Amino acid sequence: MLVLLAGIFIFHIITIILLLIATIDNAWWVTKELSTDVWGQWMMANGAWKYTDIPVSDLQDYLHAVQASAVLACVFSILGLFVFVAQLFTLGKGQRFTFSGVFQLIACLCIMIAASIYADVFHKDERNASYGHCFTIAWICFVFTFISSVIYFVLRKKSE
User: Fold this and answer.
1) Average pLDDT for residues 114-122, to the nearest whole number?
2) Per-residue pLDDT averaged across 85-105, rounded?
């Protein structure tokens, strides 16, 4: 059981690291001259990358929703890890891992909301570009947080 708990802990740490990379790094949408994330844009000018703010548009509310959802996914996943460790030492056998599973499920939903809004609203008409590695990592984190939440709920049932 100790090896299983250590594996779950490491899986959770990897998920948090990937969530932070997806939220912070600058490659949700990329072209040869532009790299956009949820916080700003990097433009190639005179052979060097320069940071610029995302142009203010009527899509600003959607951008704030993506930013908030991505940050909330990170927060809930980190809280889920702390709760996981705390539950190991404080709760009885039938009560463990429920809160960790709930926090991971909420993180899963938050990252799904962020990536879905970004895919549906932004860059619809742009043709010579593609989604960057951060967008892909966000969807991988969606799967990882879902798997993690299912594992926590299954562990709760097995420990009863």
Assistant:
1) 91
2) 80
DSSP 33-68: SEEE-SS-EEEEETTEEEEEPPPP-TTHHHHHHHHH
Extract the tokens encoding 134: 């951060």
**Spatial contact of 49 and 35, defined as CB atoms under 8 Å apart:** yes
* Tokens found for residue 81: 């890890």
Q: What is the mean pLDDT of the chain?
A: 87
Structural tokens at position 103: 């926090």
Q: Is 131 helix (H, G, I), strand (E, B) or coil?
A: strand
Strand segments, DSSP code E, in 87-136 are 130-131
> pLDDT digit string (tens) for 132-146?
999 999 999 999 999
Q: What angle do CA 87, 90, 91 make, to 5 degrees?
A: 70
Amino acid making up residue 113? I
Mean pLDDT value across residues 113-141: 89
Answer whether 36's CB lies under 8 Å from 26's CB. Answer: yes
Residue 32 CA: distances (Å) to CA of 45, 55, 125, 131: 11, 19, 17, 12
User: Could you report how far apart the first and last alpha carbons of the chain are, in Å?
Assistant: 14
